[in-house]
Amino acid sequence: MIIQTIMFYVLAVVTVGAGVMVIASRNPVHSVLFLILAFFNSAGLFVMMGAEFLAMILIIVYVGAVAVLFLFVVMMLNINFAELRAGFLQYLPIGGVIGIILLAELVLVFASGAIDIEVPTTVASPTPPADEITNTQALGDVLYTHYAYLFQGAGFILLIAMVGAIVLTHRRRADVRRQRITDQVARDPKATVQVTDIEPGAEGTWKSD
Amino acid sequence: MQPFVEPDYLPALPELFLAGASVTLLMAGVFIGDRSTRLMTWLACVAMAAAFVMVLVLPDERTTTFFGLFVTDRFAAFMKCLVLVGAAVTLIVGLGYVKREGMNRFEFPVLIVFATLGMLLMISANDLIALYVGLELQSLSLYIVAAFRRDSLRSTEAGLKYFVLGAISSGLLLYGCSMVYGFTGVTGFEGIAEALATTVPGNVAAETGVLIGLVFIAAALAFKVSAVPFHMWTPDVYEGAPTPVTAFFAAAPKVAAMALLLRVFLGPFHELAGQWDQIIIFVSIASMGLGAFAAIGQKNIKRLMAYSSIGHVGYALVGLSAGTPEGIRGVLVYMLIYMVMTLGGFACILAMRQRGQMVEEISDLSGLSKTNPSLALALAIFMFSMAGIPPLAGFFGKLYVFLAAVDEGLYGLAIFGVLASVVGAYYYIRIVKVMYFDQPAEGFDRPVGVELSAVLAGTGIITLFFFAYPAPILAGAEAAAAALMP
Q: Does ipTM exceed 0.85?
């Protein structure tokens, strides 16, 4: 139990610290790297809660795709981050006021107990008990059976997104050297490969081309 | 855990077939290249025709499958037939344009098939998540085809505008769905209906929460059918998008979104009819009014058609506000007639070419009766029909919805509708006046093309002679309405 508590505090502190560094760091590449650190530690927190599927998704999707995309953007676009940050102090008061208003609203909502509403609890698919089945397996059990229709539909949407990206951006350029696989395969080895029997030690009749 | 039982795939046969066909077409297109566009377009039409036959052949009674996510009934079959016909006809009328205007890429018909698949899923949705997946499948394809002429500034602007506003409406829809799910505990339509009838009444928090969710869902669906006050995207997108795409927007997605609107309001939220009725009446009046007045000053015919379509949605919603089976029948007949007139109208617009260039100004139509009498006659038929002049089809569309509204005692709504259609008649008939009484301008390029002529003739004949034999359409719409409102 004590180890779990220590783990929790380590992960939580590193997450919050990395989060602060994301906005505080001067170098945008460092910001993205701190973001990745924050993602990894949040994934650790998810594992501690028994939500290992969310942890995996966080690593695969956010670190593997989103953060890498950020890195690409940061490195490839020449954005002057110092300029973006220049107005920080100027906007601090109004930002602070908005933050305090939001905080006060949240406190009011929780303190007044307005969130405790009795909602009819008809549950569409009951959650299986966590000690019998891992939640990855539980999700897979419904995703590929009862929701296979929606899964396939979502797959089609992604296919359309891909087709759309190609349709709207791909241009056939004349000056590009393309790989022509049929030409490569159809090439006659006799015309291109020369087998030469070289006497050991003899001065070569080696043809370089 | 209990053993898994395979769902019954048969009720979803048209969708499964279309999904398979779209992927096959995509792969074939990738291997053959852009010279296959014409072939792909025809194959896409054949696939839609096959799906149409499947919809007709499948049993009519209400069936749910995929564990309640998917439903088919007569209503779904009726709407799916409309959508498939609308999509196939727009592909055919667009053939010439696609070839001439640098849109000759095989992805175009494939994306239209994807969008049509999304619409079929929308129509058959029986669950909030299934609804969202179908809607996104459709919308994403539509954003792409709106921007399909990527070298044209107008087209890319239309695509971007539509995408940003569509994303907002999707956000509204999801927020509404999450509220409904949160306060009822289910996402299935039957479950929501049951919860609204049993557990929710009496619980003030849940009542309010579901109501807020309903308002958000209504706003998002109103966006999809482009009803006032969520219509702002329509004129810009219709004007900027390539004309065959505009024709498609005006025909198929509008019908599908209307089907979704009817199913959501009359299915899960039937208990709250007293609440959503007010929204629908307001939206209907505002759409009719804006459609009538804002179109008067338009010079571009695609913009005019956009405002006209906003107005038509208003008239169709009159039937929904009545909330009776007769009213729903009126909506279905209205959507059918609207689609036929719109397809015909856009076929005329696609024939507006001068020296190889598309023209879109109303003044370009001057004296069309002298230079191309048959085209002028066709456009005149569609314009008179849209204005609601008897005995053309458009008159009967309006008649059925207004009759249903009067039966329910909604006199104010019916009177406003009639007044709005009188105002609207001004700009429809102005086009006829420009064609028949103004000095002839330079005529349009000839020949118009076999596909366009065939579509013009077909839609023109349906519009002209609807009154002679309306029985099959009315019977179909009545059966569909009965399936929705037991």
A: yes
